[in-house]
Amino acid sequence: MTHILSADIGGTTCKLGIFDKTLNIEEKWEISTNKTGEGILENIYDSFVVHMNRKNIDMENIIGMGIGVPGPIDFENGIVHGAVNLNWTGNIEVRKHMQQYFNGPIYVDNDANVATLGEKFKGAGRNESDVVCITLGTGVGGGIVSNSELIHGHNGSGAEIGHFLVDQNKRFQCNCGMKGCLETVASATGVINLVHHFYPNINMKSNIHDLIASKNVTAKDVFDAAKSGDEFSLFIIDKVAGYIAYAASVISVMTNPKYIIIGGGVSKAGDILLKFIKKHFEKMTFRPAQEDTHIEVAQLGNDAGIIGAAGLIKTYVLEKENQ
Ligand SMILES: [Zn+2]
Questions:
Q1: More exposed terminus of the chain, fewer Cβ within 10 Å: N or C?
Q2: Ligand 1 centre and the CA of 218: distance in Å?
Q3: Mind listing the pLDDT tens digit for each residue in 5-31?
Q4: Which class of enzymes does this protein belong to (predicted)?
């Protein structure tokens, strides 16, 4: 058996791939998700068959199938507890459903975890056994690989870094129902929360005053202004970075990662955000837990998901066989 099938299911498209044992991409393509509910699983299987036929690959050559889904997962049983973006409600038994078509190993995990595994194997994680990924997008997601395995916890809520309480003043409401989560101060929306909170109360000039005053300012505007030295924007980025560093610092005394990888749209701010995160991280983290720990920007972009979904088979099938 020499190939791994991989699917990264998203709200509008599903990325599919055929991988070799070392997680090199042999072929990747996309199909439309089209809100077909569970029907998407059958579409995925059909599409795999078409592409395998073209490459003369039989099902007997398949080691396993890894699937990433944007929703909360019961990892042990391969069940998704609803996925709003896919129009999936209730409990969807993804593994059981797929087993109708394929009777080899099937692993299912959430999109943040599979992206983390992708970065661990083929991206900024450099195949190290202890890696953390913090994804800053419209929300904040994350994953923790400790001793070469993803942390899931007893009910699947492990490594939900976005809901780490970092703002002790609990200034902003989170989508999860709580206040003060990392997501409320470090996502694209979080950056803007901080802008509108501080700007009226702080005596600093800003080149993006008009955008802020008209409430049209975006996270990208803030980062762009910061890069050109805008005092207020730099102040905001320093705050955002401080919160991210605090989460990274606590994770570091727990799992002591070698790489802390910052991904997602907000991470496109690049060096300037990283520089501030590192400054805070060094100040607040237990010395031995920060020694030889590197904070870096994610490398794989959109491919992190399918690489990581294939990585589930590498982690939970191939590496187990070798133990
Ligand atoms: Zn939250």
A1: C
A2: 21
A3: 999 998 889 999 999 999 999 999 999
A4: transferase
